Fold each of these.
Amino acid sequence: MAGVTDGKFCSKMAKYGFDLLTLGGYNAENESIEAGLKIIKRGRKEFHVDAKELIQHIRNEASYIKNGTVSNVDVSVNIRVKTEYPVTQISKIPEVDVVEINAHCRQPELVDSGYGQALMNDPEHLHELISDIVRKSKKKVSVKIRANVPGVDNIAIANAVNDAGAHYLHVDAMKPGFDCADYSVIKSIKEKMDIFIIGNNSIRDLDSARNMLLAGADGISIARAVIHGKLSFDLSLI
């Protein structure tokens, strides 16, 4: 969650039993940083870090988590980029375990600049970008996508991610007009490929978490349910 999930916030979540805590999303290129500033000006939360300071900033935030009471938790960083270089540099940070390409954000300032879910408009380019990052990254690579974007083929994008060698496919199974996830998207992807799927969207209780796993997700991610810095249900019961 941009502007929310920093080291301090993530450290609060460690006690709930999460295996992976995600920092970001971070704007890692000048264009995305400029877009982020526009988002901030209209009152929405964003992380704003100068490109030259980003590596040290992320290392500080990741270290805050790693040095906490639960030191065995893995740290992921969600990054908004159109090129591989910032991601591969971040992958060299010792305290970072997973780098995640953001092909998910729908904020118009970022999408209009070619970031976030705009990456899904060109599966071939997305495949090339992921392949380059996987080849050069020092850590595991995740790609977060948004389902059911008009004009985008969910399966084609999932195939691009899978064929490029990413370790994780993080799917926001958004179902426009509904207050629940589109579990059919998770099921259809799982039936066609064996990439590790992290299911996301509307997971707010045990039932919704179990439904996501039953649909075929190998793991789940939770955002809005922890926005206040606490989780209302026991992950161990899923």
Amino acid sequence: MLVVGARGMAGADFVKRWPGAAGVDLPEADITDPESCRRVIGETGPRVVVNCAAATGVDWCEAHRDEAMQVNAEGAGNLARAAGEAGALIVQLSTDYVFDGASAGEYSEDDAPNPLCVYAESKLEGEMAVRAATPTHLIVRVGWLFGHADKSFVRAMLRRADDADPVRVIDDQVGCPTYSYDVAGAIGRLVDAGARGTYHFTNAGACTRFEMARTVFERAGLDTARLVAIESGELGWVATRPARVVLSTAKYRAATGAAPRPWHAAVDDALERDGVKIVRS
């Protein structure tokens, strides 16, 4: 297995979760360069190529549309094409943001996407580029991804706990926290099951960012009184985010026979892996 984008949050955790997986990143693997994609796949000879390389800054993408499209859309297609030419399965990591958040229910893989921002649009274009490049593909949409990189929401909350000022966290957007280690396990199960096409995977349950932050504080034994719930409009974001996206994992469960664990349990695992002593009620 080859993980492209191995120094990013998802890619780094995937390599840790999959013993024997090879990991590459810039400059040795540049997905915006078709020849670079062919070279790195030719040199490693993988059976499965997992694309974790992406421009993920939502507001950055809004201000840099061309660059976002080059990486998230054209780059995804380049890598998928090279994988298909080599007879390898391409696994493309995508996002819940491809949906507009207008539904009060769960989004299935058959629901029509409607991206609200450039980041989401570029990731949806990436999905389409992968589908067009090779039939041997697996697209996995995830929710609010967290892991062990410094920019992970869980780690960010722990850092902010030391600030003198109150910790302001939005409480008007709902999503499904998704632990990168669990995504790696889910992809492994889908690959072993011979799955192809598009699947959703998140940890079980939904919450707001404020509720997730409160859980992190409680589990780490921190003072939750320092948390302040705010509305997203107070943050001055440039890009529009969906207000509520809950992904259905029924198709994943049917394909693998496995059920995602609750997001609270995944947060506990992430904290413990980072050396945090968990406080359980």
Amino acid sequence: MSGNNMRIGTVALTVNDLDSVSAYYERVVGLRLIARDGESARLGAGGETLLELRQDKAARRASPREAGLFHTAFLLPSRTDLGAWLRGAVAGQIRLQGASDHLVSEAIYLADPEGNGIEIYRDRPRDEWTVANGMVEMATEPLDADGLFEAAGANTWDGVPEATVVGHVHLQAGALAPAEAFYASELGFAVTCRFPGAVFYGDGGYHHHLATNIWNSRNAGARSYPATGLASLEIIAPGEPGRTVTDPWGTEIVVTGGG
């Protein structure tokens, strides 16, 4: 993710309760509050906004079976950071939904108070990835939690490091073919991996910046607004003109040409 490669910018979520959701991302995930007013909050790392929360108390609560967000994945700079986060989560009795070793990364899963999925992860060095014919080998194996605790050493968790970014966003789709036509053919991401029921997309050799799956949302139709969940997804594409498009299920994708 360097040079002119595309990457994820800000993820915007519509929420019913701004106070509780914002507090969760600060307290549990460790994002820093950048700005806040009565109707929205911006949180991030190193002064960069990674997450924007937009309050709509009247919005219906999105169903876990419709198209939209599967999870927002926050990429920590090192295994030490992930270990420190996990140790803090265990000490704080944070409810986790899962944990996996994906060969290219180690990941821990949870959800915010309104059910929006979250992944906290770290990447293995690229020279440890297996890539063949342009496809990255990924799997779902048990996470070495003991190894993460050891990697944390004496470090304690005090919020996300400044270099934290949104490494990828995983989406729920109604079908894979139209998702691939949009995210690969229209937006220009390469298909980097295929799983049963899921396709992964990346740029610049990264394992994935985006993924679409139909595990919970097969045959889902267009999204009905106003609803909680993913409101807008920013893709930073240096050198490209800015534009706003919608995916086949009505999710807003904002392409910006920022560096």
